[in-house]
Amino acid sequence: ATCGHGCKYGECMGPNKCKCFPGFTGKTCNQDLNECGLKPRPCEHRCMNTHGSYKCYCLNGYMLMPDGTCASSRTCAMVNCQYGCEEVKGQVQCLCPSGGLQLGPNGRTCIDIDECSTGRAVCSYNRRCVNTFGSFYCKCQLGYELKYTSGHYNCVDVNECVTNTHGCSLHAECLNTQGSFQCQCKQGYQGSGFDCA
User: Fold this and answer.
1) What keywords sit in the KW lines (predicted)?
2) What does DSSP assign to residue 35?
3) d(CA 85, CA 65)
């Protein structure tokens, strides 16, 4: 089976037919599935969608159980956690629904960890890190776009001279470069390339 556009988070099952891995959707399995919007809802109380998955958390006064349900807990109600809590050896601890969140100084609310600025996120050389609440993702650098080439997805240079997104002067030549472009005034003209006289 061949899938001309590839299957980003899935397998090619037939001519241009993708079978998506759990948590992904779309013709080429390139979109995150928002499990929180599914019926029946996957979480008893609250749900946080993440890239390729989701996390359940409970309202204040409830404790998250291993099966994703929420059990009433007097001790949790007393601690007043933002995202529910757990009891470890008689000690009550507030929880954060994602590894990209950490407990704030008050020990009750969760604050975002910026993986992009702390260096916890690793993106390949031609991708840039984009922080999200509780997580991050890697996006193509400016001047590059995601394309399916030779069996996998890659960030490839956008040829601004071909796509006509350069803004060079009518009296200038457009020269494509990796991730960018240059404008050079034609013979007999001078200027920045965006303005030639």
Assistant:
1) Calcium, Cell adhesion, Developmental protein, Differentiation, Disulfide bond, EGF-like domain, Extracellular matrix, Repeat, Secreted, Signal
2) G
3) 10
